[in-house]
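look at this:
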Amino acid sequence: LFTASKMGVFDLLQKSPGLDAEQVAAEIKASVKGTQCLLEALVSLGLLTPSDQCHHQKPVYKNSTLAAQFLGSDSPFSLHSYILHTDNVVWPLFSHLENAVRDGTNQHEQAFGKKAQDLFQDTYYDSQALKLRFMNAMHSIAKVTGKAVATAFDLSTYKTACDLGGCTGAIAHELTKANPQMSVTVFDLPAVIEMRDRFQPQHLDKDHRVSFMAGDFFKDDLPKADLYVLARILHDWADDKVEILLSKIAEVCKPGCALLIAETMLEGPTPHSALQSLNMLVQTEGTERTHRRYTKLLKKHGFGHTRVVYTMNFLDALLAVK
């Protein structure tokens, strides 16, 4: 999957479906033997569809429905950027899984020769190119999961929302689409906010219900809102950091305000949920948690009436009320 994405196989077959292995090899500048092996492997994964192999004819290939929807770089729900990020960053970390299991720590020093003192400012954002690549990756996941998160609960009673660590605003836009009464402030690091214009959907240019504010949610005052959103944020941090963030949210929350958490819940019905904890182990100081663990953490900070929706997407949704 990583190799085919990096070499442009899915983009090629999106533009020119029905090529045989020799034609694909010529376009991606690879050997025919290697290309044939790669194409057959992609067929076995359900990512490519071959033609009926008639006698004296070479099989030709096209993207499967799944690949057409998610793997072309120009597809509306493309995960192309996330796959390249996973190949370049996550896979080198995951190759040190044994170390991570033995030590219980992330593997940035082993994989990249650099400690992650502040993961997102020192490691992911140490250059403009890396920052943009990471934002593209997070944007692609948010596009795929945003609608499921935004529509998991009836949020019609909330007029203002703050998406903490909301990156490009993809989930914020989904929230305003699902809730016409709502305006959303995306609160993220200055380095992220500076790049936001590259990701704003053109048809929403005149939608002023999504705004952006620069800041560090561990250090700075949080914007006031009726609803706070944490999407793929808490799994990056150990419990002590999570407690700090929840206490800051609780301080600005009035009774009746709510917190919407979007994460992979460990007791969920999707088979990949447990693997996500290993994913977090090699990458961060955090972990995925169960619904019950989140409920316990939230209760300490005055949040109750906790409900969870298993969306069957990458992210599940949990709503708690102050």
